[in-house]
Prior knowledge:
single chain; 503 residues; alpha/beta; 5-stranded parallel β-sheet; 37% helix; globular
Amino acid sequence: MNTPPTPDWHARAAALQPDGRLYIDGQRAWAADDASFEKHSPIDGRRLATVARGRAADIERAVAAARAAFDDGRWARQAPAARKKVLHRFSELIVAARDELALLETLDMGKPIRYSRSVDVPAAANCIAWYAEAIDKVYDEIAPTGPQALALITREPMGVIGAIVPWNYPMIMAAWKLGPALASGNSVVLKPSEKSPLTAPRLAELAVEAGLPPGVFNVVPGYGPEAGEALALHPEVDAVGFTGSTRVGRRMLEYAGRSNLKRVYNELGGKSAFIVFPDCEDLERAAATAAGAMFFNQGESCNAPSRLLVHESIADGFAERVAALAPRYQPGDPLDATTEMGALVDEGQLRTVLGYIDAGHEAGARCLTGGRQARIDSGGYYVEPTVFDGVGNEMHIAREEIFGPVLSLIRFRDEAEAVCLANDSSYGLQASVWSHSLDRAHRVARALRAGTVHVNQYDEDDITVPFGGYKQSGNGRDKSLHAFDKYTELKTTWLRIAMPASR
Length: 503
């Protein structure tokens, strides 16, 4: 069998002409006031597109289109089998457009093309297909009320869903919200980040090509204080699914209180603990897993295991192992199919990450490797994979979400201290426990205040399991059947049943 040639991604990038217009009611359009902004690639600073700068007037147009589509039932009242067919076709079109979407994603936010193509696009397509298949697998209920009543408990779509997604996984985060929201029969207005606005309108075009009625899925790119705030405040939006920072997540709750008390589901930040006990049987694999999970996507992942908690008896050797793996993740050209780690999303994020590295030095942590800007002559925004040892859990680099390739190693003396350190965080998204003892694994997993606890692995994943966190990592869950709870209302219909007259 002949292996297909590797695409010339640089040539394709040079020929690509992204469409930066918004997408409302089945049509591309510029902003109502013709406002726009220039999008440049973090890879090398090249100009990618002029992007429509959506504001309140554009949100008004998009919400009106979504509300009309919901109220007339063009999607919500279609039979589950019909919605299922459309969403399956949508998934197929995402796969067919894999190269285009992957290239847009890489140019937009800097991740390596190998992962945009092999992870992000397939994961988005799989998510849509999974919820398509789930449409006719979710049953309603009959309550056990007794012989003189029939109480039906049914799920109904909420109406208009506002989806606000971040820049680190634009397609995947959008799919996690679109899948259950559309499968349930809702209409959606999606606001992508202004830092990565290009794939979302293209997804909407593919959805309509697949048979989704116009108006059901609308996209308004723009800035958070303009388009995002207008969407979250809109009285005709019934729920908001938000993924982003805890700081902005708080605003989402405020906007709901100021408007119509809409449901708000926040998937927020993380500072996940990766705990290694001395009875871990494979320290090499543990170190490789920690480095791989931390430096994947340039460390721009809310669930990155940025706090590496290691027992003091093995900490020196483990720190050396992790630091020795850093050269594998040295930033490279994201359009090179062999690159493992790419560019940070923009100059602001570069400055943020370098600022945290400076804070680590100032606090007395010891930088084992990295800590500098890389590929400066490229015109892009790159930081070396960085590992700090001697980190105290009170330091800024241990407490605050950096969203970059910076790993902090914290030592502990015993199991109780490990649990205490892991839980001593305002976040509670994920964690990992590495131990040969099944008793310890269960005991520690139960004690950790995190939405997902991995045992002897990290970040293995499937659409069938929920994703979300405790504490200031948010509320609600993306993925799995539990996501339907966010985008549906439960209705009880109570019927009185007349009993025959007694003889």
